[in-house]
Amino acid sequence: MKKISILGSTGSIGTQTLEVVRAYQKDLKVTALAAGSNIKLLEQQILEFKPNVVCVYDEEKAKELKDKLSYLKIPILSGMDGLIACATEREAEIVVGAVVGMIGIRPTIEAIKAKKDIALANKETLVTAGHLIMPLAEENKVALLPVDSEHSAIFQALHGENKKEVSKILLTASGGPFRGKTKEELKNIQVEDALKHPNWAMGRKITIDSSTMINKGLEVIEAKWLFDVDFEQIEVVIQPQSIIHSMVEYKDGAVIAQLGTPDMRLPIQYALFYPSRRPVEGERLDFTKIGKIDFCKPDMETFYGLRLAYEVGKKGGSMPTVFNAANEAAVAKFLNREISYLEIPEIIEYSLSKATWKENPTLEEILSIEQETYENINRKWN
Ligand SMILES: NC(=O)C1=CN([C@@H]2O[C@H](COP(=O)(O)OP(=O)(O)OC[C@H]3O[C@@H](n4cnc5c(N)ncnc54)[C@H](OP(=O)(O)O)[C@@H]3O)[C@@H](O)[C@H]2O)C=CC1
Ligand SMILES: CC(=O)[C@@H](O)[C@H](O)COP(=O)(O)O
Ligand SMILES: [Mn+2]
């Protein structure tokens, strides 16, 4: 029986992780659940999975839930301390990092220090703190298992192969709902338009990121950390049907890909049961029905957030943190209808122009760079 802690249990990845737990009740047991503020869903999850500890990040909501469920005698904590308590819950062997945003950095670091394996969906954590997380995981001998579909695909394509023989990673991208559009055509994009991903049902923030292709930019940096490759070795290829989840090209020209239906239960399950594979209920690929799979180059001028991601990745240091924090702030403003769609990459570019360079930022420095980035943005966009 593998014991798991889920950070972000009420979200898209969190609820799909719980579907996997439901399908494998004899093999998986949930020992901790954490969410932001959705206590209605969290209450149902607590009643069904009976964890040892719970966190609701929002203090007021935590108190409300605690009063309601006091008869259960399950500790219901709040804030960062609560999140860390869930990440380090004594019995948990693996922590599913499924919170959205760089709020995931501290609990991930603490989970690694507590020798928990990590099933990581929360890419913003690696983008901003990859230089701290990767050596820490090695030092503590914990496995960092990718959940992000492309990185799971790469991980699967690398399985059993010598990493030194990799020539490049072909990171596939759907291109989002606005693939093929010009900047002019993107001017009046509304929240509802950007929330229509062609292939995947996901949380709001990542769906907006996919539409701007900034998701792919974050994934380029995530791949650099997970697979220890240079940015020159990561090529983004548009594959509009999201059937090929990514590929690895080896020195001899052999290309190994992982394909599948767009269903996150597969990468979640692969991370939880690695190295074994278990059945996933649902549709299978039928190649005779698919007929053809298309490919093209990304348009990095219209979707220049992707170009900026390569640039900040190569610069390294504090730049990926500024990029990520600016994107988190801009997406929140767009979802709140405070800015236009094209202001998302503009805010990132502006933030990068204001940023001060710092090599190898510590955790405290990362968090203060994050705040500084928000302050710079709010001075101009409030
Ligand atoms: N969805 C997907 O298919 C994929 C997602 N990812 C990545 O996985 C991560 C999660 O994405 P997704 O599931 O779509 O996002 P959602 O927005 O659907 O879910 C986010 C989860 O995080 C919780 N949360 C937010 N803030 C806090 C906080 N301060 N403390 C504790 N919990 C918090 C939310 O709680 P509440 O509900 O209470 O707000 C919710 O449970 C992201 O980093 C994303 O990029 C990667 C690949 C695919
Ligand atoms: C499911 C997943 O991993 C997402 O990151 C998804 O791949 C987004 O797709 P695009 O960013 O390629 O549109
Ligand atoms: Mn992805």
Automatic annotation (TrEMBL):
<feature type="binding site">
    <location>
        <position position="219"/>
    </location>
    <ligand>
        <name>1-deoxy-D-xylulose 5-phosphate</name>
    </ligand>
</feature>
<dbReference type="GO" id="GO:0030604">
    <property type="term" value="F:1-deoxy-D-xylulose-5-phosphate reductoisomerase activity"/>
</dbReference>
<comment type="similarity">
    <text>Belongs to the DXR family.</text>
</comment>
<keyword id="KW-0460">Magnesium</keyword>
<feature type="binding site">
    <location>
        <position position="148"/>
    </location>
    <ligand>
        <name>Mn(2+)</name>
    </ligand>
</feature>
<dbReference type="InterPro" id="IPR013644">
    <property type="entry name" value="DXP_reductoisomerase_C"/>
</dbReference>
<dbReference type="Pfam" id="PF08436">
    <property type="entry name" value="DXP_redisom_C"/>
</dbReference>
<keyword id="KW-0464">Manganese</keyword>
<feature type="binding site">
    <location>
        <position position="12"/>
    </location>
    <ligand>
        <name>NADPH</name>
    </ligand>
</feature>
<feature type="binding site">
    <location>
        <position position="149"/>
    </location>
    <ligand>
        <name>1-deoxy-D-xylulose 5-phosphate</name>
    </ligand>
</feature>
<feature type="binding site">
    <location>
        <position position="215"/>
    </location>
    <ligand>
        <name>1-deoxy-D-xylulose 5-phosphate</name>
    </ligand>
</feature>
<feature type="domain" description="1-deoxy-D-xylulose 5-phosphate reductoisomerase N-terminal">
    <location>
        <begin position="4"/>
        <end position="130"/>
    </location>
</feature>
<feature type="binding site">
    <location>
        <position position="10"/>
    </location>
    <ligand>
        <name>NADPH</name>
    </ligand>
</feature>
<dbReference type="InterPro" id="IPR036169">
    <property type="entry name" value="DXPR_C_sf"/>
</dbReference>
<feature type="binding site">
    <location>
        <position position="122"/>
    </location>
    <ligand>
        <name>NADPH</name>
    </ligand>
</feature>
<keyword id="KW-0413">Isomerase</keyword>
<keyword id="KW-0414">Isoprene biosynthesis</keyword>
<protein>
    <recommendedName>
        <fullName>1-deoxy-D-xylulose 5-phosphate reductoisomerase</fullName>
        <ecNumber>1.1.1.267</ecNumber>
    </recommendedName>
</protein>
<dbReference type="InterPro" id="IPR003821">
    <property type="entry name" value="DXP_reductoisomerase"/>
</dbReference>
<comment type="function">
    <text>Catalyzes the NADPH-dependent rearrangement and reduction of 1-deoxy-D-xylulose-5-phosphate (DXP) to 2-C-methyl-D-erythritol 4-phosphate (MEP).</text>
</comment>
<feature type="binding site">
    <location>
        <position position="150"/>
    </location>
    <ligand>
        <name>Mn(2+)</name>
    </ligand>
</feature>
<feature type="binding site">
    <location>
        <position position="210"/>
    </location>
    <ligand>
        <name>1-deoxy-D-xylulose 5-phosphate</name>
    </ligand>
</feature>
<feature type="binding site">
    <location>
        <position position="36"/>
    </location>
    <ligand>
        <name>NADPH</name>
    </ligand>
</feature>
<dbReference type="GO" id="GO:0070402">
    <property type="term" value="F:NADPH binding"/>
</dbReference>
<feature type="binding site">
    <location>
        <position position="174"/>
    </location>
    <ligand>
        <name>1-deoxy-D-xylulose 5-phosphate</name>
    </ligand>
</feature>
<keyword id="KW-0560">Oxidoreductase</keyword>
<feature type="binding site">
    <location>
        <position position="13"/>
    </location>
    <ligand>
        <name>NADPH</name>
    </ligand>
</feature>
<feature type="binding site">
    <location>
        <position position="197"/>
    </location>
    <ligand>
        <name>1-deoxy-D-xylulose 5-phosphate</name>
    </ligand>
</feature>
<dbReference type="Pfam" id="PF02670">
    <property type="entry name" value="DXP_reductoisom"/>
</dbReference>
<dbReference type="Pfam" id="PF13288">
    <property type="entry name" value="DXPR_C"/>
</dbReference>
<dbReference type="GO" id="GO:0030145">
    <property type="term" value="F:manganese ion binding"/>
</dbReference>
<feature type="binding site">
    <location>
        <position position="11"/>
    </location>
    <ligand>
        <name>NADPH</name>
    </ligand>
</feature>
<feature type="binding site">
    <location>
        <position position="123"/>
    </location>
    <ligand>
        <name>1-deoxy-D-xylulose 5-phosphate</name>
    </ligand>
</feature>
<feature type="binding site">
    <location>
        <position position="216"/>
    </location>
    <ligand>
        <name>1-deoxy-D-xylulose 5-phosphate</name>
    </ligand>
</feature>
<feature type="binding site">
    <location>
        <position position="203"/>
    </location>
    <ligand>
        <name>NADPH</name>
    </ligand>
</feature>
<feature type="domain" description="1-deoxy-D-xylulose 5-phosphate reductoisomerase C-terminal">
    <location>
        <begin position="144"/>
        <end position="227"/>
    </location>
</feature>
<comment type="pathway">
    <text>Isoprenoid biosynthesis; isopentenyl diphosphate biosynthesis via DXP pathway; isopentenyl diphosphate from 1-deoxy-D-xylulose 5-phosphate: step 1/6.</text>
</comment>
<keyword id="KW-0479">Metal-binding</keyword>
<dbReference type="InterPro" id="IPR026877">
    <property type="entry name" value="DXPR_C"/>
</dbReference>
<dbReference type="InterPro" id="IPR036291">
    <property type="entry name" value="NAD(P)-bd_dom_sf"/>
</dbReference>
<feature type="binding site">
    <location>
        <position position="150"/>
    </location>
    <ligand>
        <name>1-deoxy-D-xylulose 5-phosphate</name>
    </ligand>
</feature>
<feature type="binding site">
    <location>
        <position position="124"/>
    </location>
    <ligand>
        <name>NADPH</name>
    </ligand>
</feature>
